[in-house]
Amino acid sequence: MTQDILQRLTETLAGRKRAAPESSYVAKLFSKGEDAILKKVGEEATEVILASKAGDKTHLVYETADLWFHCMVLLAQHGLSAADVLNELERREGLSGIAEKESRKQD
Fold first, then answer.
1. C-alpha distance from residue 5 to each of 2, 8, 78, 98 (Å)
2. Max Cα separation, the chain?
3. Which CATH architecture does the domain made up of 2-105 adopt?
4. What is the pTM of this model?
5. Cβ partners under 8 Å of residue 10, min gap 6
6. In whole angstroms, what separates CA 82 from the centre of its chain?
């Protein structure tokens, strides 16, 4: 179920990437370019922090959904998808966070 929504959202974002800017919020965001998308990711990350600090769990979920959505827009901007992130998380599963971080220093 979870991967189904991510797949559907990935497909929707791909369609919006080719759509006219006046047709949807996401198409307009894509038309403005990466800086506009990055600004939205930053704004949403800040809202997640504020919701967490306020202790409002419902609001935290809402803002996290916004953040994830805008991260998916950013991924789509670069020709990536949630599947790429999920694959990376799967690769890291069972690894020590310290060891994983050290392995990236060698690259």
1. 6, 5, 20, 32
2. 47
3. Orthogonal Bundle (1.10)
4. 0.85
5. 72, 76, 81, 82, 83
6. 7
